[in-house]
């Protein structure tokens, strides 16, 4: 089975404008996600899926300039997510895809491989590490077969249909023994970006999500790792 990683990218973001291309130690966030997915052993290829909305033209130009970075454009608007994924999957001849968003720059290649492996082993139509959620937010990945994509409505959050109707799908779930879902490592606000930039400054290329977790006793970001501080104040660090 040919499995292709698809980064579902767009420029629109109301909470953190243009976040997809904001730099993390000299490299746009989108490319950081692409770099990490390229380390996956169970993905046959990685491609960026971009809608035809004019605001996303800049994403296409960035991808064109990056050696080895593939992209495809499909669907008129960002909200037509299912169409975009379905059309791109067909164009790249994928039997199944792994859906990832560019606001997850600490996505873990080994964890992605685990989701693919379990999904294939259990002959699942849908597999993920988000249903039920037990890993930190920001490590999200979803495996969907072409059959599964054909069963979904065309909307901005298509996999929610699977969560609401699990009886209609063969589902595989990768879970962690400890519930760490309250941790936030995804990028939605400036403070999230500051945190991720700090992480990249602390760790070598190819770091694992466990390496990020090991930073819990280092630096000013306790609320990212300790429940009692999760709702507390955050500390701004020097950014690059």
What does this structure look like?
The protein has 240 residues and is of the alpha/beta class. The chain has a single domain (3-173), classed as Spore Coat Polysaccharide Biosynthesis Protein SpsA, Chain A. Helices cover 29% and strands 15% of the residues. The chain has helices at residues 29-37, 57-65, 81-91, 109-121, 146-150, 160-164, 190-202, 209-213; strands at 3-9, 23-24, 27-28, 45-50, 70-73, 96-100, 126-128, 142-145, 171-173. Strands 5-4-1-6-8-7-9 form a 7-stranded mixed sheet, sandwiched between helices. Strand 4, helix 2 and strand 5 form a beta-alpha-beta unit. The longest helix is centred in the middle third of the chain and has 13 residues, at 109-121.
Summarize the structure.
Helix content is 29%, strand content 15%. The protein has helices at residues 29-37, 57-65, 81-91, 109-121, 146-150, 160-164, 190-202, 209-213, and strands at 3-9, 23-24, 27-28, 45-50, 70-73, 96-100, 126-128, 142-145, 171-173.
């Amino acid at each position: 089975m040919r499995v292709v990683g698809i980064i579902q990218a767009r420029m629109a973001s109301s909470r953190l404008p243009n976040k997809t291309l904001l730099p993390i130690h000299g490299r746009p966030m989108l490319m950081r996600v692409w770099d990490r997915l390229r380390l996956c052993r169970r993905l046959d290829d990685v491609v960026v899926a971009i809608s035809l909305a004019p605001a996303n033209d800049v994403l296409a130009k960035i991808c064109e300039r990056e050696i080895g970075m593939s992209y495809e454009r499909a669907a008129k608007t960002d909200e037509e997510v299912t169409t975009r994924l379905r059309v791109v999957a067909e164009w790249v001849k994928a039997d199944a895809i792994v859906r990832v968003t560019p606001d997850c720059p600490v996505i873990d290649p080994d964890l992605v491989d685990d989701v693919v492996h379990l999904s294939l082993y259990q002959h699942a139509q849908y597999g993920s590490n988000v249903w039920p959620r037990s890993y930190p937010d920001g490590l999200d990945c979803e495996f969907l077969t072409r059959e599964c994509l054909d069963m979904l409505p065309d909307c901005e959050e298509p996999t929610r249909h699977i969560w609401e109707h699990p009886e209609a799908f063969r589902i595989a779930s990768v879970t962690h023994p400890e519930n760490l879902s309250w941790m936030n490592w995804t990028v939605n606000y400036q403070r999230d970006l500051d945190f991720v930039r700090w992480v990249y400054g602390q760790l070598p290329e190819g770091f694992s999500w466990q390496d990020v977790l090991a930073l819990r006793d280092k630096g000013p970001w306790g609320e990212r790792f300790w429940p009692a501080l999760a709702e507390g104040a955050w500390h701004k660090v020097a950014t690059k």
